[in-house]
């Protein structure tokens, strides 16, 4: 039986709140990496106050995955930030945000008007934003920081191009701009290394770079928020030059360069050395094999060693030394030499292109051959060549040891470690132990390659009612070029849309093509957020070049790609009228507005448009430039045919609010919910699928009847766009003024009348207990991960959750990884690796049976609680005969875990029958898995986590209990 809850857990159940992450003065709080970046400036301000400094903070930058939700988190914490004199002002784009942060350090040049002792700055942006900021970074870094200021530039890197048009690695850009690069490997280290980064910036006069990636910054864990946790040591072995290292005026460029290269970088190195930011994790006197790693790769290395059976004691026995690097550039030489001393070989484990490896080789190059260790990283050495070099390979892919492309995993790293140790020579029992684990990995990889079942795919698609379903269409015979935003997905739909550019370059590729092709005209998609960011310059270039192009400015009134932020950074947003006046001033040849609500532009002199309505600002929305006509979206095709015949640069502003944002506003009472619904009379429907062709909408679903396949509208997901009625089908019925009838619940008695659930024997999580939740984006998959994470935090357990969503839209596959252990030290990574899942909560059959999820399963270990019901995929939109592959999905999962490892039932049907809504499917499956004894958390902690989430608490509890 399970032991009674200890007193400290009972106390936590009573005292922990969601606000702890920002309000708690001391102790531990559960937070995500993004939330840690919100807490970081508060911690810095608190530390400054304790040191007698009156400081303030300033944050600016531009959103983008994996930092897409940072601005929203900052807005949500506004009262906490304001109390600490911290100002958040997002940038119009990345470089302007960085320039504003630069300004905070110049306050010391005007001492007579300073309000604070110093202002520390934080810049943020995703990888492409780092690229475009290089000019600002170089200038600002050479100029320097203020004594009590300091700056961190936080890069959000997407190593596998999950939500980006290209994979990114900002280390090299930071290095080129002269910024030291921190690479935290956990949520706790975001706080700890963030404080060190500010302190280094203040001491050395440099901007500090900080690299974050999705696996860390979008993970959550229980962390210490004690302001005195980090002990800052000011270096005593660095001799400051006359005048110091801080910003000054006047300051000649060559003097700035000399100060940076002669002193500031070496001051930063002195800081690394004094604070021991790079250090040995495992070491002994007789080591011969060294591993040096940073960031996520360090976590993966710890997991790889553990998986190979190489615990700390075994590493000492074999002579394995493990070194952690928190500042990856410049690599501090003294610490690095101490690490390398006495080793025969060093394996450098880092994702993407070499940063540490090149520096390490340079540092060791002049060592005597008899003491210099062999250094390997990306490449294994070819036969007869111990150099491990790179550019002499005719076929480099034949010699990858730790690939520089995509990312690394514990499984990949384990293979490399085992290969090198076997070559160096280790006892036979150690080799057998390693081979046993590698055999498991190989078996799973081989099974996935050999799998023959078609289990379908949850491809990302436009949300139901998305404006892009209509706006991205082009007339027959024309083509379009894509832009950055959700509308980028048009590139894999039947939209004659191909190729793309960097953000702000939309359409400009046509300038380089127009003179050399028989095509006379193209369309270019340009999102409203991109227009405000930098896209206007692309239009200016097209006008200046005199090419024939039509820009479709897709005004959705929200930056849907990153969470629904308003267009532009002004409090009132950025309106269609403002864009129209701007375009007219630029000189477009013709300009029109196309909208689903043309009536709002005519006959109403004081109507609120959608962006102004949200902010509470009245605007004359029919205040368009003279001659700008407004058309209904039904006329888009006719207009586009006319525009493609015009000379010069033309523009169509397509005005329709983001469907998901409409849904949010309707729920919050900020937007009227039309009392109008569309239903399909299945007896009249012929199942032709023209409604799907007209609407491109996922809410038009198949309905199997005794008369064959028909269509129905999923009223739970429908966002009332009404495009499906354009097929003029007699089966469509429009109902006005009516309300949806709630599903009839089965009379099972209320929750209070049920007998108590028998307490299952819960798992004892001495090592990491891996849980994978897989389902469809927008259905609460991430919420399940957060509930489990909070429950583990309440129990004082070690916990890490990591959300693996892709593009910011509903309908695609989404996962949440949760690892729970009695001790935090037992958890190394943020993701459940190959064959490491103890429990899979399969909320959708297709996602559960996907190669990504199947790879985490292991026969004899993994239990799968799987929902048999699944919504149609995007394939149904274009293929009326598409069949849901439910049977194949079940067979694929059963083929991995066996009959005893799978429990499958129609959880959605049960949720509707018992509670009246399919939204409770996921907590119902979670409750089922807990009752099966597969979740190592107490009932009390899980119930309290549901209460803290504060959304439909009683119904979510009921779903769990049933």
Helix and strand topology:
Layout: H1 7-15, H2 20-23, E1 28-32, H3 33-50, E2 55-61, H4 70-76, H5 78-83, E3 86-88, H6 94-105, E4 118-126, H7 127-132, H8 134-143, E5 151-157, H9 171-177, E6 181-182, H10 187-204, E7 208-213, H11 214-217, E8 219-224, H12 253-274, E9 279-282, E10 289-294, H13 295-307, H14 312-318, E11 320-325, E12 327-329, H15 333-340, E13 345-349, H16 356-364, E14 374-376, H17 410-424, H18 428-450, H19 468-471, E15 480-481, H20 509-513, E16 522-527, H21 528-545, E17 549-555, H22 576-586, E18 591-595, H23 610-615, E19 629-632, H24 636-643, E20 649-655, H25 659-667, E21 676-680, H26 690-695, E22 700-705, E23 708-713, E24 732-736, E25 769-776, H27 781-794, E26 798-804, E27 813-821, E28 839-842, H28 845-848, H29 851-854, E29 863-867, H30 875-878, H31 886-897, E30 902-905, H32 907-915, H33 921-931, H34 939-949, H35 953-961
Parallel strand pairs: 2-3, 2-4, 4-5, 5-7, 6-7, 10-11, 10-13, 13-14, 15-16, 16-17, 17-20, 18-19, 18-20, 25-28, 28-29, 29-30
Antiparallel strand pairs: 1-8, 6-12, 8-26, 9-11, 21-24, 22-23, 25-27, 26-27
Helix pairs in contact: 3-10, 6-8, 8-9, 10-12, 13-17, 17-18, 27-34, 32-33, 33-35
Keywords:
single chain, 962 residues, alpha/beta, Rossmann fold, 8-stranded mixed β-sheet, 7-stranded mixed β-sheet, 30 strands, globular
């Amino acid at each position: 039986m399970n032991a009674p809850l200890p007193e400290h857990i009972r106390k936590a159940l009573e005292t922990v709140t969601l606000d702890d992450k920002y309000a708690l003065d001391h102790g531990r709080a559960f937070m995500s990496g993004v939330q840690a970046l919100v807490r970081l400036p508060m911690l810095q301000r608190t530390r400054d106050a304790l040191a007698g400094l009156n400081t303030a903070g300033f944050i600016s930058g531009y959103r983008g995955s994996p930092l897409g939700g940072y601005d929203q988190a900052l807005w949500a914490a506004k009262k906490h930030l304001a109390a600490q004199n911290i100002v958040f002002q997002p940038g119009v784009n990345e470089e302007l945000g960085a320039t504003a942060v630069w300004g905070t350090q110049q306050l010391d040049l005007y001492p007579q008007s300073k309000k604070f002792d110093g202002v520390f700055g934080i810049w943020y942006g995703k990888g492409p934003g780092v690229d475009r900021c290089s000019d600002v970074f170089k200038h600002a870094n050479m100029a320097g920081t203020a004594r009590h200021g300091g700056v961190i530039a936080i890069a959000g890197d997407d190593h596998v191009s999950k939500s980006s048009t290209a994979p990114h690695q900002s280390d090299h850009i930071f290095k080129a701009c002269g910024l030291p690069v921190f690479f935290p490997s956990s949520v706790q280290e975001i706080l700890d290394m963030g404080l060190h980064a500010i302190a280094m910036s203040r001491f050395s006069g440099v901007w500090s770079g900080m690299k974050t990636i999705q696996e860390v910054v979008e993970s959550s864990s229980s962390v210490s928020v004690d302001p005195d946790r980090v002990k800052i040591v000011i270096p005593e072995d660095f001799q400051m030059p006359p005048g110091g290292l801080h910003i000054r005026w006047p300051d000649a460029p060559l003097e700035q360069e000399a100060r940076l290269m002669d002193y500031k970088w070496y001051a930063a190195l002195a800081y690394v050395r004094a604070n021991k930011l790079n250090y040995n994790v495992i070491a002994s006197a007789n080591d011969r094999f060294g591993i040096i790693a940073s960031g996520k790769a360090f976590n993966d290395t710890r997991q790889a060693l553990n998986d190979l059976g190489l615990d700390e004691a075994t590493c000492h026995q074999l002579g394995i030394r493990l070194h952690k690097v928190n500042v990856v550039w410049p690599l501090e030489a003294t610490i690095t030499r101490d690490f390398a001393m006495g080793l025969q070989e060093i394996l450098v484990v880092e994702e993407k292109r070499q940063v540490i490896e090149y520096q390490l080789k340079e540092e060791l190059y002049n060592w005597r051959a008899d003491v210099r260790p062999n250094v390997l990283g990306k490449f294994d050495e070819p036969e007869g060549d111990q150099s491990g070099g790179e550019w002499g390979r005719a076929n480099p892919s034949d010699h990858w040891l730790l690939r520089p492309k995509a990312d690394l995993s514990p499984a990949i790293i384990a293979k490399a470690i085992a290969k090198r140790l076997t070559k160096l020579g280790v006892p036979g029992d150690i080799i057998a132990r390693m081979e046993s684990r590698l055999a498991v990995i190989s078996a799973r990889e081989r099974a996935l390659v050999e799998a023959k079942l078609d289990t379908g795919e949850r491809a990302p698609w436009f949300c139901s009612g998305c404006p892009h379903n209509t706006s991205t269409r082009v007339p027959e015979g024309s083509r379009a070029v894509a832009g950055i935003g959700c509308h980028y997905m048009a590139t894999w739909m039947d939209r004659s849309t191909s190729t793309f550019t960097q953000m702000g370059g939309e359409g400009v590729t046509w300038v380089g093509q127009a003179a050399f092709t028989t095509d006379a005209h193209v369309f270019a998609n340009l999102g409203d957020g991109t227009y405000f960011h930098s896209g206007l310059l692309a239009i200016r270039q097209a006008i200046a070049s005199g090419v024939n192009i039509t820009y479709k400015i897709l005004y959705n009134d929200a930056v849907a790609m990153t969470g629904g932020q308003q267009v532009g950074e002004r409090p009132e947003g950025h309106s269609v009228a403002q864009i129209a006046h701007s375009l007219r001033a630029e000189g477009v040849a013709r300009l029109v507005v196309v909208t689903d609500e043309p009536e709002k532009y005519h006959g109403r002199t004081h109507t609120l448009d959608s962006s102004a309505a949200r902010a509470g600002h009245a605007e004359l929305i029919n205040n368009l430039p003279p001659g700008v006509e407004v058309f209904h979206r039904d006329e888009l095709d006719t207009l586009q045919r006319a525009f493609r015949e015009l000379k010069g640069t033309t523009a169509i502003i397509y005005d329709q609010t983001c469907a998901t944002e409409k849904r949010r506003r309707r729920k919050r009472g900020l937007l009227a919910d039309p009392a109008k619904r569309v239903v399909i009379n299945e007896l009249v429907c012929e199942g032709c699928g023209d409604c799907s062709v007209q609407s491109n909408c996922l809410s038009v679903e198949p309905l199997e009847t005794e008369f064959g396949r028909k269509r129905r509208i999923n009223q739970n997901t429908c966002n009332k766009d009404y495009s499906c009625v354009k097929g003029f089908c007699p089966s469509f019925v429009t109902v006005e003024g009516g309300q949806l009838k709630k599903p009839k619940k089965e009379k099972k008695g209320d929750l209070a009348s049920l007998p108590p659930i028998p307490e299952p024997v819960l798992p004892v999580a001495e090592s990491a207990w891996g849980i994978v939740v897989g389902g469809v984006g927008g259905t609460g998959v991430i919420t399940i991960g957060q509930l489990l994470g909070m429950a583990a935090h309440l129990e004082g357990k070690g916990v890490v959750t990591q959300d693996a969503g892709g593009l910011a839209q509903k309908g695609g596959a989404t996962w949440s990884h949760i690892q729970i252990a009695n001790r935090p030290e037992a958890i190394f990574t943020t993701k459940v690796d190959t064959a490491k899942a103890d429990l899979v909560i399969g909320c959708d059959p297709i996602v559960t049976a996907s190669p990504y999820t199947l790879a985490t399963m292991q026969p004899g270990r993994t239990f799968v609680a799987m929902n048999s019901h699944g919504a149609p995929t995007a394939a149904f939109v274009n293929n009326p005969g598409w069949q849901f592959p439910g049977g194949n999905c079940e067979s694929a999962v059963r083929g991995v875990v066996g009959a005893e490892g799978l429990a499958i039932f129609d959880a959605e049907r049960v949720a509707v029958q018992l509670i009246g809504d399919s939204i409770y499917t996921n907590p119902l499956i979670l409750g089922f898995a807990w009752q099966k004894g597969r979740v190592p958390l107490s009932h009390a902690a899980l119930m309290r986590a549901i209460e803290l989430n504060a959304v439909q608490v009683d119904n979510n509890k009921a779903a769990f209990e049933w």
